[in-house]
Amino acid sequence: MTKQVFIINGSGGVGKDTVCSAAAQSWKVQNISSITPILQVAKAAGWDGTKTPAARRFLSQLKADCTEFNDLPFRYCTEQLQIFAENDAELLFVHIREPEEIERFRQTAGVNCKTILVRRPTLEQARGQLGNRSDDGVAAYTYDAEFLNDGSLEELPAKVHDFLQALIKR
């Protein structure tokens, strides 16, 4: 199998990591997020790890500041892309929220890169906006495919497998 990169996005709580875990039942998966190095900075600044609306705004702004200052999130993702190229994982999931950063990483990753928006309409409608650019702007990009996360956890691995298999073949 040719290695495949998926940039995965969706607002908070829609099940992006759950989709990645389901994929790991069929493929060797590496799962990373552009926010990972920012979380370390946030913890040093006193963030306790909970994702309240205020914390989400803080993380979103901190990521924007770190991107502007020294491009930390993008550098982290490209380092992880290199590790993926050298390891035995078959799929790389890269969680990126901001449309301009999605496109930038997509260009860097090359032809074996597809973009996925995970949606969970009942949750998204009931919850509404989360109050930050990163969560609330996920629909501002044209994705290769949209995954509707609306079934049971038992059905999810097969649904994810079929969805990704079809996307890989495109």
Low-confidence stretches: none
- Structural class, by secondary structure, is alpha/beta
Count of individual beta strands: 5
Order of helices and strands: EHEHHHEHEHHEH
Largest sheet: 5 strands, parallel
Helix count, DSSP H or I runs of 4 or more residues: 8
Rg on CA atoms, Å:
16 Å
Gap between N and C termini: 14 Å
Mean pLDDT: 92
Helix content: 40-55%
In the sheet with the most strands, the strands line up as 2-3-1-4-5
Strand content: 15-25%
Overall 3D geometry?
A: globular
Please outline the helices and strands.
Elements: E1 4-9, H1 16-23, E2 29-33, H2 36-44, H3 53-70, H4 72-86, E3 91-95, H5 99-109, E4 113-119, H6 121-127, H7 133-136, E5 145-148, H8 156-169
Parallel strand pairs: 1-3, 1-4, 2-3, 4-5
Key features of this structure:
170 residues, alpha/beta, 8 helices, 51% helix
Descriptive notes:
The protein is of the alpha/beta class and 170 residues long. The protein has helices spanning 16-23, 36-44, 53-70, 72-86, 99-109, 121-127, 133-136, 156-169; strands spanning 4-9, 29-33, 91-95, 113-119, 145-148. It contains eight helices and five strands; from the N terminus they run E-H-E-H-H-H-E-H-E-H-H-E-H. The longest helix is centred in the middle third of the chain and has 18 residues, at 53-70. It starts with a strand and ends with a helix. A five-stranded parallel β-sheet has the order 2-3-1-4-5, with helices on both faces.
